[in-house]
């Protein structure tokens, strides 16, 4: 360990086994060498700072894949972090659009009401008895009263915004998930487990999936490496299950 620490301070490579590699270690890989770990390419001897690797042991693809040296090693991890993508169902997106149009309708109706109130006040010859004048015996400015009327109509017409609809839909989702998790047809006796719904919007997408695009066969099947047999000094050892 002391020799390794001295070489690290001297910035020299040390021969170590792959099982001894830890996160944060700098690894030098030569041509045609097997890499049994996830590595980040920091430097390449290629003039274009690229390297080619083969992943046939993982996915069976023999074509070489090109990797490029990362640029900006100090903020690359932050540049690649775009945050979690918010997934919304079709019903939720449709509901948000409808509420947005309700807001536009409410604003339009209040604006028309305020303009109409201003024109009505301007057309009055005097102070009508149903309007309370100020301390000076005169009404407020029509533009100011129209401004007040705009917010008054917002209070009166705010029922156009279906805020309770969101709560109702969430309650319906909770009820649907309850019936799904307690469905006897979705129960597996071998593993003694039932279906688990970990998202409220999962019920909205059921039965709405039209296409599945996949670039790997293992995505839909299963890539599993199974020990079949080996031969040691002429003696063949096979796996019983295979």
TrEMBL record:
<dbReference type="InterPro" id="IPR023214">
    <property type="entry name" value="HAD_sf"/>
</dbReference>
<feature type="transmembrane region" description="Helical">
    <location>
        <begin position="95"/>
        <end position="120"/>
    </location>
</feature>
<dbReference type="InterPro" id="IPR036412">
    <property type="entry name" value="HAD-like_sf"/>
</dbReference>
<protein>
    <recommendedName>
        <fullName>P-type phospholipid transporter</fullName>
    </recommendedName>
</protein>
<keyword id="KW-0472">Membrane</keyword>
<keyword id="KW-0067">ATP-binding</keyword>
<dbReference type="InterPro" id="IPR023298">
    <property type="entry name" value="ATPase_P-typ_TM_dom_sf"/>
</dbReference>
<keyword id="KW-1278">Translocase</keyword>
<dbReference type="InterPro" id="IPR001757">
    <property type="entry name" value="P_typ_ATPase"/>
</dbReference>
<dbReference type="InterPro" id="IPR008250">
    <property type="entry name" value="ATPase_P-typ_transduc_dom_A_sf"/>
</dbReference>
<keyword id="KW-0812">Transmembrane</keyword>
<keyword id="KW-0547">Nucleotide-binding</keyword>
<dbReference type="InterPro" id="IPR018303">
    <property type="entry name" value="ATPase_P-typ_P_site"/>
</dbReference>
<feature type="transmembrane region" description="Helical">
    <location>
        <begin position="147"/>
        <end position="169"/>
    </location>
</feature>
<dbReference type="InterPro" id="IPR023299">
    <property type="entry name" value="ATPase_P-typ_cyto_dom_N"/>
</dbReference>
<keyword id="KW-1133">Transmembrane helix</keyword>
